[in-house]
Amino acid sequence: MCGRFARYSLSRELERYFNALPPSIEIQPSYNVAPTQEIPVIVQHEDARHIKKRHWGLVPFWAKDISIGSRMINARVETISSKPAFKAALKHRRCLIPANGFYEWKGKAGSKQPYFICLPSGEPLAFAGLYEIWEDKEAPPEAGPYKSCTIITMNASDSVKDIHNRMPLILKPEAFDEWLDPDNKEPAKIEELLRTRNVKELKSYPVSKLVNRVENNSKACIEPLKEAGE
Q1: What is the pLDDT of residue 218?
Q2: Cα 57 to the chain's mean position, in Å?
Q3: For 179-189, how does the pLDDT look when each residue is reduced to its tens digit (9 = 90+)?
Q4: DSSP letter at 27?
Q5: What residues act catalytically?
Q6: Exposure winner among 38, 109, 158, 224, fewest CB in 10 A?
Q7: CB count in 10 Å sphere of residue 182
Q8: pTM above 0.90, yes or no
Q9: How far apart are CA 159 and CA 163, in angstroms?
Q10: Options 3.40.50.720, 3.90.550.10, 3.30.390.30, 3.90.1680.10; which CATH number does 5-221 get?
Q11: What is the rounded CA–CA span in Å between residue 158 and residue 131?
């Protein structure tokens, strides 16, 4: 699974990398993104890419309340076309979730070592994501809809599997257009894209256990350990 990641690229870099319009929202760096927090996502509307905000943890449109979101932070690529929570979003509500890397833990419970995993180039990357818009019918109109998203995951590649058996599905830049295309609604075609146009070569290094606590959110979370066992 993917339960924590870092996204410290700011608006200007995201606009350039994803060829997106300038956002109307302020984007602050986060070195320790956690479920239920609001995060920037890239969506396609009328031939233009936009940077929007969504809560991490998908709430299906048919949910009774938003509490289900904390259990829907990830969507397994193997079952997204059949699971009711993701089936409609896969056809109609796909997004890119910008990141600079993600965290995984290795070892025995109680003494697990966190690792930061990113592109060898250090460039931003994009998780394949789905989003939903949930309406609380009992809330006043001014409350607005609850907008949420989930990260699609896959079996870990050779570069990650020694740390964890799953990883977020990272799309290659040449797949962005097809993934975001609202006219692309064929599940078989979408699944083929996910299977064949993902990034497998990543680099990893151990980092401080500071990242274990959500309140720790600074560059220190992604800095390599100076000494083994630090």
Answers
A1: 97
A2: 10
A3: 999 999 988 99
A4: -
A5: 2, 104
A6: 109
A7: 14
A8: yes
A9: 9
A10: 3.90.1680.10
A11: 29
Longest dimension (CA), the chain: 55
CA distance 211 to 9: 18
* Contact (Cβ atoms closer than 8 angstroms) between residue 182 and residue 93: no
Query: DSSP labels for 179-203?
Result: HH-TT---HHHHHHHHHHSB----E
Residue keyed to tokens 């929570």: 85
Structural tokens at position 53: 């905000």
**CB-count exposure of residue 54 (10 Å: 0-12, 13-18, 19+):** buried
Q: Which of 225, 229, 208 is nearest to 31 (CA)?
A: 208
Whole-angstrom distance, CA of residue 94 vs CA of residue 104: 25
- How far apart CA 164 and CA 114 sit, in angstroms, is 11
Q: Is there a contact between 149 and 56 (Cβ–Cβ < 8 Å)?
A: yes
Q: Provide the 3-class DSSP secondary structure of residue 23.
A: coil
Q: Comparing C-alpha atoms, which of 70, 74, 77 is closest to residue 97?
A: 74
Question: Is 130:86 a contact under the CB 8 Å cutoff?
Answer: yes
For residue 87, pLDDT over 80 is answered with yes
Q: Which residues of 66-97 are buried (b: 16+ CB within 10 A; e: fewer)?
A: eebbeebbbbebeebeeeebbbebbbebbbbb
